[in-house]
Amino acid sequence: MTLFINTCVREESRTKILSDALLSKLGDYEELKLENIDFPKTDEAFLKKRDSLIASQSFDNPMFTLARQFAKADIIVIAAPYWDLSFPAVLKQYIEHINVLGITFEYTPEGFPKGLCKANKLYYVMTAGGTYVPEEYGFGYIKSLAENFYGIKDVELIKATGLDIYGTDEKAVLNDVITRIEKI
C-alpha cells in the first residue's frame, strides 16, 4: 500500500500536480490530507499520556493510529510545497505524531535508532517559487528521519524550483519534471 501524505492546500497546487503524476505511476494509494487533521496540542498532559501508553506498550491506542499507518505502508509519498524556508508546519505536527518508540523505530542496546517501518521507498515531492532551496530545511530533514529512524533507505527527492522567477515557463518546468517521473 502506498501512503500519500498531502500537505498541499492550494486548489492549483504545483506540488500536487507533480504528486498526482507520481501517484498515477504507483497505482492504488491511501491519501492522508494533513489539513483535515486536528492535531492535539502537545502539552505536558499530552506527553505524559503518550509516554505512559508507550511504556505499557499500548500501541493499539487511537493516539498511535497515524504512526501505525505510516509504519505499515510499503511506499510513502510526501507532497510538501516549500514555504517560508521549509515545508508546511502541519508536516512537523504529523512527524511528531508518527515518531513513536515501538511503532516506527526502536533503540538498539547501544542507543542507536533502528527503523521498524515496512516501507522500502519514500518520495518527497516539492515545488518552490525561487531557486534558493537548502535541502536541510525540508527534504534533508525528512531524508535523515527516514534513513536513520524509520529504516527507509531509498529516499528520493522530486522537485521543481524557480517557478515564480520572472520569465520562467512554469508549465515547461513542471512538464520536464513530469517527464522524469514517467521514467521512474
Automatic annotation (TrEMBL):
- Sorted alphabetically, which InterPro entries does this protein's record hold? Flavodoxin_fold, Flavoprotein-like_sf, FMN-dep_NADH:Q_OxRdtase_AzoR1
Q: Where is the Flavodoxin-like fold domain?
A: 2-181
Q: One Pfam family, short name please? A: Flavodoxin_2
Name by which UniProt lists this protein: ACP phosphodiesterase
Recorded source organism is: Pseudobutyrivibrio xylanivorans
